[in-house]
Amino acid sequence: MALFGKQFFKSSDARAEDAYRSGVLAVSAKKFQEAYDHFNRAAEGEHGSAYYNLFLLHGGGYLPTFDLDAAADNFYKAAAIGHPKAEQQLYMLEGADRAGFGMDNLAALASGSVETGFLPPILMVCACRFVSAVSTKYGATMDVIAYELDAASSSEDEYVQAFIRRTGIASSFFRGGLNRLVEGSAADQITDGLNDFSLALSRSGMGSKLGKMARCTVVGHMIKKSYLGESAAPLLGVQRFFEA
Question: What InterPro entries is this protein classified in (predicted)?
Fold first, then answer.
């Protein structure tokens, strides 16, 4: 897979380099958990391309569970060690983490998405961490979660309903959430931004199933970062999300 294959970094540690190459071969065979194990060993030798590929695996939903924080951690490590792609995109993640990325920029990034069968890693990491950060900054987290879950509860898709159940949040918390938002409030603007995010993904040519999963994952990450996350199940990667 081209996304993983181009090596920008070569380690002087032979064991790390061998592990990295084994990881690339595993990705080519679509053995993503095996690839993760190899890249993880390569990262122990501070292999810059291994860090970046771990970011891709964690951030794109290739593994059984999503870990957006692990994705970001490996991205920052790759940038710090000089991986050019990570350095080029660093401003986006830094902006997301300080709640300064902007919903318009998020929609613009989503509009450039390409259908791969997985989710765009830099988009997902920025979306999840930005929406969580900006909601926390303006005290809008609970209202946004209630709005999103109330909207999702009307979906006819079983995988969306399964996602709601995995949040562990009682319907009494989010029932009526669509009608609670004050027009022009922070929560209202954030949910409008998520609507634009979903529309941009749809217009980019991404399938509706992955687009819905992307939005669920953003909401799920918010939940995991809030006190509500104590009873939430792990976020699922692409394959397991649609098996539920």
Answer: TPR-like_helical_dom_sf
